[in-house]
Each structure stands twice: as C-alpha cells, then as structure tokens.
Amino acid sequence: MATNIPYGSALAKKVYGAALFAAVQIEPGFMNLLTGPAPKQAEAEAKLKGQTSAEYPIVRVTDLSKGAGASVSVDLFNNLTGKPTMGDKRIVGKMMSLTYSSMDVQINQYRGGADAGGKMTQQRTVWNLRGIAMAGLTNWSGRLEDQLCLVHMAGARGTQNTADWVVPLASDSDFTTIMVNTVNAPTSNRKFYANDATLPSNLDTTDILTLTDFDRVASVLKDSLIPLQSIKIKGDVYAWNDPLWVAFVTNRQWLYLQTRTGEKSWRTFLQNAYERRSAGMRHPLFYGDVGFWAGILIRPMNRLAIRFAAGDTVAYDSGTTTFTSSNATASVATDRCIIVGAQALLKCYGQHQSSEYYYSWHEELVDHQNAVETSVAMMGGVAKTRFQVYDGTNNIDTDYGVAAIDSYAPDPTTAAGKALLV
Q: How many angstroms separate the CA atoms of 172 and 77, rounded?
C-alpha cells in the first residue's frame, strides 16, 4: 500500500477504500467462514449482481447499481409438482404452474471513524497513522459485519453486551436503524428447544443442550416437507451423499455439551469431524474445536453469544403457516445455537456515492493540520433468507437456510453453573 499519497486525495480514497474492503472480506471471522467463493467472471456477468456461491450459508451480492435506501430483490421458485402425462395423452391444459416468492434486502450507509489526535499526542509520522487507522477500522468493520450476520440469522440480539460488541442492544434507540432490515425471530418450523421444552417460558434447569438434541433436530429437519438446504463446500467429497449443516453453539453450550457427553461418545464426536476433514476437506470450518454428529458440524462461536437472562423478553413465532411474532419471558439463563444450511443469509453491498468500491475511505487534516481524522463508509444490508415455501399443501413462511436451538446455559462461574460441571 502506497504511503506517499497526500491526505484527502482522490487516489487515497480509491486505494484505501478498496484495500479495506478486501481486508474485511479475507479477515478470519464468522461471516467469511460461511461465505462461498465468488463466481468466475463469465458467471458473474451472467448473474449481473456478482452473487457468490448459493451452496454456502451466506450469499454475498455486490450490486453497484444500488445506493442508500435501495433494495436488492431475491426470488425463490418452488419445485414443480404434478403427475407426468403418459403416452399419447394430450398435455394441453396440464401444464404445471411456476410459483415463487420474493424478498427485498434494504441497504443503507454505515460509517465509522478514528481520531488519531494531535501531533504532540501522536509522536508519530503522519504516514504511520494510516496503518494504525487501517488496522483499527478493519477490525471494527469485520466485527460489525460478523455481528450483523449473527443477529439476523439468530433472529435476536440477546442481552450479552461485552466490549467487543459493535451492534447495540435491541433496547438502544439506534438498533433498528443499524440493522437496516427487520430482525425476525425464527419461524416455528425452524425453532427448537433442548430436551422437552417448547417455549422460552418453559425452559428449565434440566433443558441443557446434548448430542441427543442434535439427533432429534437433525431427524426433524431431514424429514421436513421443507428440508433445510445442505451446504456444499469445495473439496467435501461426501457433500452429495452425506449432507452437511453447521451448528454454532456458544462457549457455555459447548462446555455443558461436553460435560453431558460420555467419554466414548465425545471421542467419536471429535473423530467424526477429523474423518470428514481427512477425506479432502481443507475448509477452516473443520479446524479448531469442532465435532460432527448426525450430519451436523458443531463448533463454538468464539466470544459472541445470543444470550438471554432469566426475565428477558424473547420473541418467537406463534403462527402455523404465517409468521406471527409473539413475546415470552425467559424463565432461565438461555443461550441460542444456530444451525445453518445453504442460502441462510443475504449480505448485500451497493455503490457508495460515485465510488466503484463498496467501502469508501476518507481522511483529512483538522485543527489547522495538527490532527488527523479518518473515516470509512460502507453501503450494505443484511437479511435472513425467508420465503413462503410450498410444502405440498400450504405456503409456509420459512427461514430458508437456518434453524435455532435454545437451551439452559448458566454462567459457569455461578453456583448454578458449577453444579452442572460435577
């Protein structure tokens, strides 16, 4: 990256804006673990919107024709249904109807800035400040994009509020504006609870996440009239015959999952993931703390958690075919695991002003050129993929590529948590 470009120049805006976008897209993180490779140039031209692979959980759409306040439209066509016409019977009047549903992803401008202070405070050359600003804003932008994706897929922000959260609590007056698109609770056919619980209000201290829960949920999802689409990662030789989903559990859920699993089953759990990886899989999803069970790759979500304290309000879908948002009160400390399949989320980028890049970089000397301020702007929006999907009888509001499991997960430093570790 050049360091002799004057502050505020048009070239600096292009060079650093493009570099920041590239850095955010390759930085290790939740979003990039789940996003497929970009299509080849010929495919991109055919698709017009530069959509990444639809066989991964997060589909990234880069559409330079869109700006703030615009929306990107996505359509889902249902499978054709009906009997074949046999022999010489006339097919006229027996055509099967193409049915589909659509969703629009709104995009808006996100901005963040860094103030490097005055010269006496800095005690550095102005050129070093660019590197410092780039590193800080890359980290901030990556966390922002990860958290937007997580909250939308989980269908809730929760009440965890550690210092690394960029997205504020849902109670914050700016939350709705920051999320751009509505954060929708999981649809009823994609929401599960550990053990025998059926609502946030009747989870109790026995409803701890176990491998048996993954067996049950996997069975329901596989037998569903609207199955959760499987992920097809490049290099996974089993992708077609042994479908794969990925579950992200909180660190607390992972801890209690391990303590509730016998030593033999836990070794099998870890070995299953190793064998899938050894068959040619080199994707980072398969490295680190990870296990494989019932067709689900299970791994912890770093530090972030969608978490509710006892007494918190939790939104849920009380409808049957049409999504109906209702509220319940969490009865115990609750963590949410998300299970993702293909096309779980749409991450859309648009055009920032007249720039040809999705991130815009701005810097200027202020206070009579004594201090440097740097800011970035991104034009984008995130939305969970939700369609009305025909199940053979009804059109049902369905989270197309993500499901959720809530379970009891107390703080392990408390008496309640310690009691689960013995």
A: 37
